[in-house]
Amino acid sequence: MAGSLFRTKSIDTLTAESGDTPLKRTLGPGSLVALGIGAIIGAGLFVRTAAAIADRSGPSVTLAFLLAGVGCAFAGLCYAEFASMIPIAGSAYTYSYTTMGELVAWIIGWDLVLEYAVGAATVAIAWSEYFNKVLDYIRPGLHVPYQWSHSPFEHGMGVNAGLHGIMNIPAVGILLILSALLIRGTRESAFVNSLIVVTKVTIVVMVIVIGSPPPRKRRTPSATCRSASSGRSSFAPFCMSCSRMC
Asked: How many Å apart are CA 182 and CA 168, to the nearest integer?
């Protein structure tokens, strides 16, 4: 019994089980890069980053992004190595089945299902919040009622005090639309994803350009400022009133 839990499958067996007709290649390098960017730039960047900077980490969130980027790079290298060694569809499930056995593959498979379910739910909830804000921007006061834009585990605060969520209809709606798009085909899904990626990258670049401070011109302080700053510490060498000129 214990031996069957950790039995593995050889690459030849997996190749034979996958059939003689491989999957048709429909995605090129550009589409694959767009899929990666689309997975990176999403609700975490547009929704959670500002809250994390304002309430918790501050500017150090930049270091967190750099550290996460290094981890993602190593993960990508690992997946590339596995894909070259085991060129069969199945992702981490197939890789773990081949190397570590059936039990580990079963755990990894359900982990992948949980990852995609939680990730899709998080993005759908963030999209629902944006949808409500867009409605209010188009027409002040226009929004989906609280009960139908929040889950049963949420309760209102402030103007929505005493209300409880029933179902997040905008989140369910976007999930159904995207599911129908995936059923339609890989090529169509990749095309829509590319359009969304171009929009998101444009927004990020605009925020960086508009939010960048203009270059400041350094001017030499006058003799009055120099005399007023004599004997002061180097923290504000030209006094408070004259430091504006620097």
From this structure: 21
- Phi, psi dihedral angles at 112 (to 5 degrees): -65, -45
Question: CB of 126 within 8 A of CB of 47?
Answer: yes
pLDDT for residue 2: 62
Say what the pLDDT of residue 18 is.
67
CA-based nearest residue to 94, from 219, 200, 10: 10
Rounded to an integer, what distance in angstroms lies between the CA atom of residue 197 and that of residue 34? Answer: 6
Q: How many CA atoms lie within 13 A of 214 on its CB side?
A: 3
* pTM of model > 0.70: no
Instruction: Give the number of other CB atoms < 10 A from CB of residue 96.
Output: 22
Q: Which of 193, 225, 181 is nearest to 39 (CA)?
A: 193
Cα gap 88→137, rounded to integer Å: 48
Residue whose C-alpha is closest to residue 166's, from 183, 151, 176: 151
DSSP reduced 3-state for 101: coil
Question: Using CA atoms, how far apart are residues 238 and 225, in angstroms rounded to an integer?
Answer: 6
pLDDT at position 103 = 86
In the predicted model, residues of the chain with pLDDT beneath 70 are: 1-3, 18-23, 43-44, 47-48, 216-246
> What does DSSP assign to residue 198?
H
Residue 233's pLDDT is what?
A: 44
Distance (Å, rounded) from C-alpha 123 to C-alpha 195?
17
**Helix, strand, or coil (residue 149):** strand
